[in-house]
Automatic annotation (TrEMBL), chain A:
This is WD40 repeat-like protein. It holds the Pfam family WD40. One of its GO terms (cellular component) is GID complex. Gene3D superfamilies: YVTN repeat-like/Quinoprotein amine dehydrogenase. PANTHER family: WD REPEAT PROTEIN 26-RELATED (PTHR22838), WD REPEAT-CONTAINING PROTEIN 26 (PTHR22838:SF0).
TrEMBL record, chain B:
The keyword Lipid metabolism does not apply. PANTHER family: PROTEIN YIPPEE-LIKE CG15309-RELATED (PTHR13848). This is Protein yippee-like. Belongs to the yippee family. It comes from the Eukaryota. Residues 13-110 form the Yippee domain. GO terms for molecular function: metal ion binding.
Length: 685, 110
């Protein structure tokens, strides 16, 4: 807000005393009629009013010619003829109210700084952006005339009892804080006692406010109150909070036009199935509807990494997006280095490290926040590897069954692990156990921590003891509702299960990270194999058999979307978010394809083939390049998928046909090393 | 093949592999304790989990000729017993499709 700085110059021109007299006489202007009738009487009775500097964004008018006006309609200049139009619509065949439209345009023009144009438009249209009352109110708030501001509320149409109370409270609160800031404790106390306390607000809030009296310095006060002081933006913020209680037709919300344009942008974005471009880019022009070309989608294999000697079960990008870790049945993990893009979609992939020394196949892999540590799990062991040297720093053997999840904590305080032994453990960055959650009700098959550190989502299975006498297959056996179901129950039919197989119940459980309390629990049909919390901490993406990926809304505690098409029976299949804003959902599948959906609509966008026999076990989107992801498969390979437009392919083919095989080298240090004998990376184009 | 987690059992008594404690069977699926294996006493189970079945072969046992397959622990690969594919003697038909686990190779687990 530039209001304050402009105040001085504008008050010398047109503000000042007369505004008060006007305020007393005029009535609140709400409807269009009053404007219309006034607008015609073009420029008689020159008066000053508060309006001219009461701009929404505070850009004071720079011209020194005081406009002529009557009743709040300002006529700044050179007899602009009022254009009289029939009706009230912007166009005869539209539903847009002309006055509303014009007032928003005037507001926008003023905010930008086109003061003259705004005035001209007001004159020509006969509509004013807002009444003198509003401008005065603005000044009262900005100049801390609290009594007058309070009195003005009713004139601005704040008649509803609740709104009025709320508004008065906001004003008193500001007054109280400013008094405290000026070390006027006695007066502040009076405000607290006589104005704030009687409002019956939340006692806790009132307590917080009263405790601020103890602040020793204004800085301390501002810090503790989360308030930036009378010289900061607090009055502006107060104004916009008060705005919410004032009829918007009287006082137009700030930058209203921009809000509408933003909504339009969001709407277009939501309807763009292949959306994958940043909001500030050239892709959003007001001239045309936004649309992302599907050819920009990463649906082409640009590289195949084939060093693993057996099935690849899991992949994970480093946070920098420069390394990819893979692991699997061959009891090793490999860290690949992704080279810079030389030609479009042509990069060099080098095998940075091979981490062996696992007794069993490697199931999960995870990076520390700074990418200096890679975690691998093999059965009940967790290994911590230095990603520079490739040395194993520590082997943790606390878990007693298969470790299924390792997640670095977003606050960098360590990591969390979980396993089929039902243990959920918290570790410090060195790998010393810091906390244990006791026995979870489920054997955890995967777990994730929300980036905002509020929730933990675990998926897994509860095994219920078999029924002693097999014939009772009513499907109504041991209490599945005992654990506080929040979601629907689909009674599992037992009739086809042999009696010796234990009944298993699959579940997702959401915990509050701070209290370890269960917030939500959802029963799922088949084995759960992966869970991912979205970057905005809003959703949890869960893969489970049979053949379903599910999006759980953590804030509303309900299913947001389901994704189908992929195959998942008995294998651990993992899914992930992808693209700008996590707009896509991708999953592996037992049919050997990669599936990609539009996250919000659930529409299946791509079924990408290429991998050989067996399952595609995991997919991982590059965290720093929205146009690149990787998949891994039983066929022992990892595929890198990128967007390749036809033009790029031609360019690639024309440039270096002989160089189609990217060079693989054992050492990461030699970037431009000779064409290596190990050259197994392929560019298939 | 893809990655799979081992199955877990629940119940009053769970038998696991004595080498690696992988869950194998529960007492609820036990049919008989009156069997003998290569290492002494053996149990007949209606079903077991987490085992790999070997190739079928004919074997002469005290109760007659049978087609059986050896079974191995899915995690550590230890031979645990066998599965009856076929019993030639009509009185032994009840064993078909059932599993033998040798008691000395089992351990109680939770």
């Amino acid at each position: 807000m530039r209001l304050q700085s402009d105040q001085a110059s504008s008050s010398s021109t047109s503000l000042a005393a007369p505004s008060n007299s006007l305020a007393g006489s005029s009535t609140p202007i709400q409807g269009s009629n009053s404007f219309n009738s006034n607008g015609h009487s073009n420029g008689t009775g020159p008066t000053t009013n508060g309006f001219s500097n009461g701009l929404t964004n505070g850009t004071g008018p720079s011209n020194s010619t005081p406009g002529s006006l009557k009743n709040g309609v300002i006529k700044h200049n050179k007899n602009v003829a009022h254009v009289s139009l029939p009706g009230r619509k912007l166009f005869s065949d539209s539903n847009v109210d002309r006055e509303e439209f014009v007032r928003l345009v005037v507001q926008s023009l003023r905010d930008v700084g086109y003061i003259e144009s705004a005035a001209t438009l007001e004159a020509e249209s006969g509509y004013t952006m807002e009444s003198t009352e509003v401008a005065e109110f603005r000044n009262y708030v900005m100049e801390a005339s609290w009594e007058q501001a309070e009195a003005a509320l009713i004139r601005l149409g704040v008649t509803d009892e609740d709104n009025l109370m709320e508004s008065r409270f906001l004003i008193s609160q500001q007054k109280y804080l400013e008094l405290l800031e000026n070390r006027n404790t006695t007066a502040a106390l009076m405000v607290l006692r006589n104005e704030l306390a009687p409002h019956h607000v939340d006692p806790e809030h009132l307590y917080t406010l009263s405790s601020l009296i103890m602040c020793s310095t204004p800085e301390d006060l501002r810090h503790r109150a989360g308030w930036d002081g009378s010289r900061g933006n607090s009055r502006t913020r107060l104004l916009s909070n008060l705005q919410k209680h004032i009829p918007s037709a009287v006082m137009i919300p700030q930058r209203r036009f921009l809000t509408l344009l933003e909504q339009s942008r969001l709407w277009q974005q939501q309807r763009c199935p292949y959306h994958n471009s940043p909001p500030d880019s050239m892709s959003f022009s007001l001239y045309r509807d936004h649309h992302c070309d599907s050819s920009c989608f990463p649906n082409t294999t640009t590289t195949i990494l084939e060093i693993h000697t057996d099935e690849v079960w899991n992949i994970e990008w480093s946070h920098s997006g420069e390394y990819l870790a893979s692991a699997g049945k061959d009891k090793s993990a490999i860290i690949w280095r992704v080279g810079p893009e030389k030609e479009p979609a042509q990069r060099e992939y080098t095998q940075h490290l091979v981490l062996r020394d696992h007794q069993y196949p490697v199931g999960c892999i995870s990076w520390s926040l700074d990418d200096s540590i890679l975690f691998t799990s093999s059965e009940n062991h967790i290994k911590m590897w230095n990603t520079r040297s490739g040395l194993c720093m520590r082997t943790i053997e606390t878990h007693t069954e298969t470790v299924t999840a390792i997640r670095w904590l977003p606050d960098n305080s360590g990591f969390m692990s979980a396993g089929l032994d039902r243990r959920i453990l918290i570790w410090d960055p060195e790998g010393n156990q810091r906390d244990s959650w006791g026995m979870a009700p489920i054997r955890v098959t995967d777990l994730d921590v929300s980036p905002n550190m509020t929730k933990v989502v675990a998926v897994g299975v509860i095994h219920l003891p078999p029924i002693p006498h097999p014939p009772t297959s009513t499907g109504n056996s041991p209490a599945p509702g005992a654990r506080g179901d929040s979601a629907s129950q689909s009674p599992q039919s037992q009739s086809h299960t042999p009696s010796y197989i234990v009944k298993a119940e699959n579940r997702m459980i959401v915990y509050d990270l701070a209290t370890k309390h269960q917030i939500a629990s959802l029963r799922l049909d088949g084995e759960t194999t992966s869970v991912r919390v979205s970057r905005d901490s809003r959703y949890a993406l869960i893969s489970h058999a049979p053949d379903e990926v599910l999006l759980w809304d953590l804030s509303l505690s309900r299913i947001a979307c389901k994704y189908t098409g992929q195959k998942q029976g008995r294998h651990v299949i993992r899914s992930c978010y992808g693209g700008v804003d996590g707009n896509f959902v991708a999953s592996g599948s037992e049919d050997g394809n990669v599936y990609v959906w539009h996250r919000d609509s659930g529409a299946l966008l791509e079924v990408l083939s290429g991998h050989g026999e067996g399952s595609v076990n995991a997919v991982a989107w590059n965290p720093t390049n929205e146009w690149m992801f990787a998949s891994c498969s039983d066929d022992k390979t990892i595929r890198i998928w990128e967007a390749v437009t036809p033009g790029m392919l031609e360019a690639a083919a024309a440039s270096t046909p002989a160089d189609k095989d990217t060079v693989m080298s054992d050492s990461a240090s030699v970037a431009g090393s000779s064409k290596n004998e190990k050259g197994k990376g392929k560019v298939t184009s | 093949m893809g990655m799979s987690y081992r199955q877990y059992l629940a119940g009053a008594r769970i038998y696991g592999c004595s080498t690696c404690k992988t869950h194998l069977a529960t007492i609820h699926s036990m049919l008989s304790r009156a069997f003998n294996g290569q290492h002494g006493r053996a149990y007949l189970f209606e079903g077991v989990v987490n085992v790999v079945e070997g190739k079928p072969c004919d074997r002469q046992m005290t109760t007659g000729n049978h087609t059986v397959r050896d079974i191995y622990c899915i995690k550590c690969g230890v031979t645990l017993g066998w599965k009856y594919d076929k019993a030639y003697d009509p009185s032994q038909k009840y064993k078909e499709g059932k599993y033998i686990l040798e008691r000395n190779l089992l351990v109680d687990v939770q």
